[in-house]
């Protein structure tokens, strides 16, 4: 397995800090500091090391990643993930096209028209273009459309063909202003649909963690290639020592901070500095990147769960 990025951060880089996110919810703690573990939490992590996923099983999980996500969406369809109505609140870039809309904030015509890499008209033209990587069943893109944000063309891709099929069957799916397609973002496959330097915004929200760490660099390099100079990546994913990481039992750990879930899907837990360095090495400028400690509370179900995310924005320099 490739050496972890955090092991390559030199002393000078490790001292550099980036602007922190705003606290978007009451009770949020925004910090660059790693969670301090209790003795009990340290013991849980040590216990995980007693029985690791075998090399054979780890390879099989990688080879069958698409199958496991297809089975996930076969079982759950659109019932598992909640719609992400929070994205425009925490990533204002998703609102950036509103000024070009009509006086009532809406648009009566399809936003743009143009030619993608495959030469077919996709309705996107010279206007702004967004790509959601790991679109699932559309829990980000359809709330955007419901809220009237149709003044940029939306591309949406997912490793799972079944997920893409569910997106295409949604009543709001309309190829005048969106295009969903199956794609392995860790490979060159995405360039069969999208041209170099064609995108303004890429969202990478709870997606990179599902990819093998050996493929983080190729994934981010592909995103850099897809973005226009001045384009931005909007990122959120699981943070180091998140509650979900601490809950894994022996037999689920594949490698450092990388785990197998019961259903065969996988999850990685990121250090904030690791994410910053990953994007810097690919040629991005770090605009903002922080841990966000947040409590997920549902009084009706007596749920009070501490979560840790890494959230950031990364710019492809205008001169790139």
Sum this structure up briefly.
This protein is about 25% helix and about 25% strand.
CATH architecture: 3-Layer(aba) Sandwich
**Structural class of the helices, strands and pairings?**
alpha/beta
Strand order of the largest sheet: 1-10-11-6-5-2-3-4
Q: What number of structural domains do the residues give?
A: 1
State the end-to-end distance. 30 Å
| CATH C-level class | Alpha Beta
Give the C-alpha Rg: 20 Å
Secondary-structure element order, N to C: HEHHHHEHEHEEHEHEEEHEE
Poorly predicted runs of 5 or more residues:
1-15, 98-121
Shape: globular
Number of helices: 10
The proportion of strand residues reads 15-25%
Mean pLDDT: 82
CATH topology: Rossmann fold
Percentage of residues assigned to helices: 25-40%
**Main sheet characteristics:** 8 strands, mixed
Q: What's the total number of strands?
A: 11
CATH homologous superfamily descriptor: Vaccinia Virus protein VP39
């Amino acid at each position: 397995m490739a050496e972890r990025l955090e092991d390559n951060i030199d002393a000078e880089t490790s001292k550099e800090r980036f602007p922190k996110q705003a606290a978007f919810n009451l009770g949020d703690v925004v910090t660059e500091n790693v969670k301090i573990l209790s003795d009990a939490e340290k013991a849980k992590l040590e216990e995980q090391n007693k029985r690791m996923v075998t090399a054979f099983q780890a390879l099989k999980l990688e080879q069958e990643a698409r199958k496991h996500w297809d089975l996930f969406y076969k079982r759950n369809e659109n019932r598992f993930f909640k719609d992400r109505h929070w994205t425009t609140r925490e990533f204002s870039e998703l609102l950036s096209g509103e000024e070009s809309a009509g006086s009532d904030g809406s648009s009566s015509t399809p936003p743009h028209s143009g030619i993608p890499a495959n030469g077919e008209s996709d309705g996107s033209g010279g206007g702004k273009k967004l790509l959601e990587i790991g679109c699932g069943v559309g829990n980000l893109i359809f709330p955007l459309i419901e809220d009237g944000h149709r003044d940029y063309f939306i591309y949406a891709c997912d490793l799972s063909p079944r997920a893409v099929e569910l997106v295409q069957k949604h009543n709001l799916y309309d190829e005048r202003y969106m295009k969903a397609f199956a794609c392995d973002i860790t490979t060159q496959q995405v360039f069969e649909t999208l041209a170099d330097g064609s995108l303004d915004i890429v969202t990478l929200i709870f997606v990179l963690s599902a990819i093998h760490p050996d493929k983080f660099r190729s994934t981010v390099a592909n995103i850099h290639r897809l973005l226009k100079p001045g384009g931005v990546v909007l990122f959120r994913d699981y943070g180091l020592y998140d509650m979900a990481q601490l809950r894994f039992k022996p037999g689920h750990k594949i490698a450092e901070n990388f785990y197998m879930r019961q259903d065969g899907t996988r999850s990685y837990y990121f250090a904030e500095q690791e994410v910053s360095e990953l994007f810097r090495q690919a040629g991005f400028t770090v605009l903002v990147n922080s841990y966000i400690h947040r409590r997920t509370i549902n009084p009706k179900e007596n749920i009070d769960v501490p979560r840790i995310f890494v959230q950031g924005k990364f710019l492809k320099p205008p001169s790139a």
